[in-house]
């Protein structure tokens, strides 16, 4: 069980890094587009689609990592009022909710990806990007989100300690990085 | 039983009226059918409507067929430069082998056509009148559709892609010199305030777009024969209504632009042919290369007198 | 079942899921799935992936992560401190100059960042301890920054305005311009209140320092480049030279470059920190956007949206009563939900009603945004309060909350002023872009 939780955490971090890199790359592509359009007065055809798809992929692939960091906005009314036992219950229920949503989207997203792959769908602009590439981020991203929710359910007794505080998996991250993430909220 | 109809236009648009005619006609027929219209993209986004039609989740919709070209690349032929010359030509095209083939693809994917409609459009520029390909050389232009982008690049224009709703601001700020869109959009987005010259459809138009009213085959097959007949009849009424309206849209555009002091011109047969020659090497060639049976489709369309 | 009843059940389910702690994004998505399956069976499921994906596939949306990166790059550097220092050195002789410096720095930083918590954190880290040191009451020190930070979503660029623009098909550039004067007006109200409060309670503002002209000028080189970026972006957006997404991309790159050049944040770990912080925030926002697409689809499919709208229209309220009711509704929604979720869920219903009643959609965007600002400094989802609490843990959340309360009233005053003088929001866009095309 521990091994499963660790493996999922590691996967989430890995895809979180990919997501951050995608955002960085998207910025460079937009700048390239601006340069070509306004400085060289040339045609820009492939950049828009590419950047949109990259940012959608970043959102989906990074979602599990953000869940792990507690970065998705949550209303913590009940959590604040609850004692330790209730907090464990809440944490399990909340993650079941996330798990259900993520699983349905992973499966339907997988189906969508498969249709695009089978039918060789292309994006409509001149870029003609094969649509299975961006669609692939749905089963992967939501699949990972479902796994992360599952890992958090399993990890609940350890995560909600005697004081009832939620311990984010900080020990597995560098301290600096954790601080940076906290500053971000 | 209630059928769901979705489209992207506001309730003043002629295309909303078409769907509304289907609703009133079907309900008048008193065959136990109701239609609930979701206008202004309040249910599905414009390009999202084809998939639910094929699965039967959505019953009726109306949108440019080229929106579904990511699934069926042949549909790009219905937004191809120079294939349709004018509204009467479009009507003849509906019964041609070309459209039969397109409709076969539509049917095979689980969708049927209730009404055929073609919309015309034109070009407008802040610089000069666009008649021959060399007129647009060096201008930054917005084109409606991939095939048009390819042809304009072939003519020496630069392309800036944007929705038609952004043309006005782009022209105002100098991002855009010229634009190509439908007659209706030219008027509703008040492009006449920005441009010097308009190229109206006339008898030798370049820009025509197929925008049928579609129905899910799954939903259709689930109806009684009586209900199916009522729907088809309603589609016919709607189609005839639109044929008149489409010409009116062009006339309104010409009148509005003239009133605003914009020069209005139309292409003659030779000028249209010059564009078609460029399309031959750009959009037609790309289409033939990338789409199975693409060349045959274009040939069939060009063969319609 | 009547659509109104379904709507009530949907609301209860959504609230229930959020109360047990399902993140807002997934609670929206799960509620949509539950009701789709309940009324349509599993046959409706294949479409949800496409709806979710299409909800994110908008060109304008891609400016959101880029504006966030812009803010994060500046926030990762001590630029917030410098900005505040600069204003302080120049304004320290002015009575209450410190408050003016802080709220002014918030306003300027808002123009670099589309988000409120980022603004709050960047200025608060330096400004709050300094205000407390110099004798300002804790409530004013924290409240001024919590409120000043909310300007992040009103002063352009604004993520809230981007989402509104997409949801209502209005011009994002025009929305941005509409936010400028109201943003300055709110900043003015915040300053006025802070000074009045300190004066009324006879606080001795200690620790005034004199700065030489040399000191004043020496801090400028570090600040001017960021000001130049702001001016550049404003020019690009309002001159209509490029789209918001393009401006955001270039702005983000410039801000990263400035952080590297001026503050020496060149190590990969620095860049990584900027990108990962931005990734966290933009994933959070974009997930809500995708899930909201699913949620709105379900509401529309079950005819809930349309029925509610029809009911409001049928009630045939006086237009100002209507606007009052809408404001209360938005305010309550904003207490519980992040701005992006509120906008995506409510504007499809509200905008047609509001415009039909003769209100300007750009004016309404500003009023809506100020309502959302109030939500940012009220529990339970008061992001800014938590940011401040993180900066000065020794000040209790209660003090921060009470300190923010008067600023909330400033915002309500702002809304009232906008109702009396709608030109505050509409004049500048009309001047710069001509009358709106509807
Ligand atoms: Na801002
Ligand atoms: Na709140």
UniProtKB/TrEMBL annotation, chain A:
Record keywords: Cell inner membrane, Cell membrane, Membrane, Transmembrane, Transmembrane helix, Transport
Domain Tripartite ATP-independent periplasmic transporters DctQ component: 27-155
InterPro entries, per database record: DctQ, TRAP_DctQ
Subcellular location: Cell inner membrane
Membrane topology summary: Multi-pass membrane protein
Molecular-function annotations in GO: transmembrane transporter activity
GO CC term (a single one): plasma membrane
Transmembrane intervals: 12-39, 51-68, 89-114, 129-150
Pfam family, one: DctQ
GO-annotated biological processes: C4-dicarboxylate transport
Organism domain of life: Bacteria
Main localization (coarse): membrane
Family matches, as PANTHER family: 2,3-DIKETO-L-GULONATE TRAP TRANSPORTER SMALL PERMEASE PROTEIN YIAM (PTHR35011), TRAP TRANSPORTER SMALL PERMEASE PROTEIN (PTHR35011:SF10)
Subunit structure: The complex comprises the extracytoplasmic solute receptor protein and the two transmembrane proteins.
Task of the protein: Part of the tripartite ATP-independent periplasmic (TRAP) transport system.
Family: Belongs to the TRAP transporter small permease family.
Name the record gives this protein: TRAP transporter small permease protein
Organism whose genome encodes this protein: Dichotomicrobium thermohalophilum
From TrEMBL, chain C:
Gene Ontology terms: cellular component: plasma membrane
Biological source species: Dichotomicrobium thermohalophilum
Locations listed in the record: Cell inner membrane
Keywords for this protein: Cell inner membrane, Cell membrane, Membrane, Transmembrane, Transmembrane helix, Transport
Domain TRAP C4-dicarboxylate transport system permease DctM subunit: 13-424
Membrane topology note: Multi-pass membrane protein
UniProt-recorded Gene Ontology molecular function terms: transmembrane transporter activity
Protein purpose: Part of the tripartite ATP-independent periplasmic (TRAP) transport system.
Pfam families (alphabetical): DctM
InterPro entries reported for this sequence: DctM, TRAP_DctM
Protein name as annotated: TRAP transporter large permease protein
The protein's assembly and partners: The complex comprises the extracytoplasmic solute receptor protein and the two transmembrane proteins.
Similarity field: Belongs to the TRAP transporter large permease family.
Transmembrane spans: 6-39, 51-76, 96-123, 144-166, 172-198, 219-241, 247-265, 285-304, 324-351, 363-386, 406-428
């Amino acid at each position: 069980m521990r091994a499963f939780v660790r493996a999922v955490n590691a996967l989430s971090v890995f895809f979180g890094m990919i997501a951050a890199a995608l955002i960085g790359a998207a910025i460079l592509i937009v700048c390239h587009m601006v340069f070509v359009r306004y400085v060289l007065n040339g045609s820009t055809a492939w950049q828009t689609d590419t950047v949109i798809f990259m940012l959608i992929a970043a959102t989906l692939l990074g979602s599990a990592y953000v869940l792990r960091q507690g970065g998705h906005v949550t209303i913590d009314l009940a959590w604040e009022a609850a004692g330790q036992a209730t907090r464990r219950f809440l944490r399990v229920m909340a993650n079941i909710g996330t798990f259900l949503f993520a699983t349905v989207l992973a499966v339907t997203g997988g189906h969508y990806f498969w249709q695009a792959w089978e039918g060789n769908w292309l994006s409509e602009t001149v870029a003609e990007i094969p649509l299975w590439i961006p669609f692939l981020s749905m089963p992967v991203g939501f699949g990972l989100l479902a796994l992360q929710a599952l890992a958090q359910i399993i990890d609940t007794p350890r995560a909600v300690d005697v004081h009832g505080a939620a311990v984010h998996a900080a020990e597995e991250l560098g301290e600096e990085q954790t601080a940076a993430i906290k500053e971000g909220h | 039983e209630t059928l769901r109809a979705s489209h992207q236009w506001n309730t003043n648009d002629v295309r909303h009226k078409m769907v509304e005619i289907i609703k009133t006609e079907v309900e008048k027929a008193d065959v136990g059918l109701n239609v609930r219209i979701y206008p202004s993209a309040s249910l599905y986004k414009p390009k999202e409507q084809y998939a639910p039609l094929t699965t039967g989740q959505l019953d009726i919709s109306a949108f440019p067929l080229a929106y579904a070209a990511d699934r069926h690349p042949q549909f790009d032929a219905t937004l191809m430069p120079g294939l349709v010359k004018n509204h009467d030509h479009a009507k003849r095209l509906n019964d041609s082998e070309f459209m039969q083939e397109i409709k076969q693809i539509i049917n095979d994917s689980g969708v049927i056509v209730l009404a055929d409609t073609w919309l015309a459009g034109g070009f407008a520029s802040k610089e000069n009148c666009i008649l021959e390909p060399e007129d647009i050389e060096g201008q930054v232009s917005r084109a409606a559709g991939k095939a048009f982008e390819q042809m304009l690049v072939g003519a020496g224009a630069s392309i800036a892609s944007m929705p038609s709703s952004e043309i006005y601001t782009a022209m105002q700020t100098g991002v855009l010199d010229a634009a190509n869109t439908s007659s209706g959009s030219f008027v509703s987005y008040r492009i006449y305030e920005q441009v010097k010259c308009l190229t109206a459809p006339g008898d030798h138009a370049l820009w025509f777009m197929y925008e049928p009213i579609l129905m899910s085959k799954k939903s259709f097959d689930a109806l009684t024969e009586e209900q199916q007949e009522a729907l088809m009849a309603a589609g016919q009424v709607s189609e005839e209504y639109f044929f008149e309206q489409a010409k009116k849209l062009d006339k309104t555009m010409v009148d509005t632009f003239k009133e605003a002091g914009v020069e209005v011109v139309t292409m003659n047969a030779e000028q249209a042919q010059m564009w078609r020659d460029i399309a031959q090497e750009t959009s037609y060639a790309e289409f033939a290369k990338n789409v199975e049976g693409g060349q045959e489709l274009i040939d069939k369309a060009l063969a319609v007198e | 079942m009547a659509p109104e009843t379904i709507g009530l059940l949907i609301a209860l389910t959504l609230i229930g899921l959020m109360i047990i702690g399902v993140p807002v994004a997934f609670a929206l998505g799960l509620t949509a799935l539950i009701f789709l399956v309940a009324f349509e069976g599993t046959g409706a499921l294949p479409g949800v992936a496409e709806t979710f994906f299409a909800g994110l596939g908008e060109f304008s949306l891609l400016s959101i992560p880029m504006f966030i990166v812009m803010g994060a790059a500046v926030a990762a550097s001590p630029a917030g401190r410098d900005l505040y220092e600069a204003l302080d050195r120049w304004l320290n002789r002015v009575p209450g100059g410190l408050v003016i410096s802080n709220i002014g720095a918030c306003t300027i930083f808002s123009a670099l960042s589309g988000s409120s918590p980022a603004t709050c954190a960047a200025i608060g880290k330096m400004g709050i301890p300094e205000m407390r040191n110099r004798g300002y009451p804790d409530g004013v020190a924290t409240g001024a920054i919590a409120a000043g930070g909310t300007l992040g979503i009103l002063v352009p660029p604004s993520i809230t305005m981007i989402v509104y623009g997409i949801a209502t098909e209005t011009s994002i550039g025009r929305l941005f311009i509409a936010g400028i004067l109201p943003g300055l007006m709110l900043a003015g109200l915040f300053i006025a209140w802070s000074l009045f409060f300190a004066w009324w309670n006879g606080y001795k503002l200690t620790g005034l320092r004199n700065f030489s002209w040399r000191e004043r000028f020496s801090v400028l080189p570090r600040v001017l480049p960021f000001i130049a970026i702001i001016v550049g972006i404003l020019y690009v957006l309002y001159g209509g030279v490029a789209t918001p997404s393009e401006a955001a991309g270039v702005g983000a790159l410039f801000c990263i470059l400035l952080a590297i050049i001026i503050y020496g944040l060149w190590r990969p770990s620095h860049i990584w920190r900027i990108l990962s912080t931005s990734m966290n925030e933009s994933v959070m926002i974009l997930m809500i956007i995708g899930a909201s697409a699913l949620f709105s689809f379900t509401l529309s499919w079950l005819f809930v949206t349309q029925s509610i709208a029809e009911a409001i229209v049928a009630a045939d309220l006086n237009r100002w009563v209507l606007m009052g009711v809408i404001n209360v509704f938005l305010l309550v929604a904003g207490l519980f939900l992040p701005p992006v979720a509120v906008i995506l869920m409510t504007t499809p219903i509200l905008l047609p009603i509001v415009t039909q009643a003769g209100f300007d959609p750009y004016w309404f965007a500003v009023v809506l945004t100020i309502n959302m600002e109030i939500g940012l400094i009220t529990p339970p989802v008061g992001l800014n309060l938590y940011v401040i609490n993180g900066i000065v843990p020794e000040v209790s959340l209660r003090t921060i909350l009470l300190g923010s309360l008067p600023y909330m009233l400033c915002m309500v005053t702002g809304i009232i002023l906008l109702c009396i003088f709608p030109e505050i929001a509409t004049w500048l866009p009309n001047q710069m872009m001509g009358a709106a095309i509807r």
